[in-house]
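FW: tagging you since you asked about this chain on Friday. Here's the raw sequence from the shared folder, copied in full. Didn't touch anything.
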Amino acid sequence: MTQWINLPAIGNILLLGLVFGAGLPALVAVGVTMLDTGRTSGTDGTARVAASPARQTVAYLCFAVVLAAIAFGIYEVVTG
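HL: got it, structure written out here
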C-alpha cells in the first residue's frame, strides 16, 4: 500500500455497512409488516384477521435471508 488512505477498501466498508447495517433491519421490517394485516373483523377492534399465505411467504423469506446473513457472518468469524 503506497497511499495513506486506501479508497477501494473504504468503499467496500461503506457498501457492506449500508447493506448489513441498514439492509438487514429493513428486511426484518418488511417481514413484520407482511405479517401484520392491519385489519379487524369486529367493530370493537379486538379480533385480527390472519395474513394471506402470499404475505406470510414473503415474510418468511425475508426472515430466512436475515438468518442466512447472520449465519454467514458467524461462519466467517469462526473460520477466520
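FW: The helical segments are 7-35, 53-79.
HL: agreed, and The CA atoms of residues 72 and 78 lie 10 Å apart.
FW: great, closing this out.
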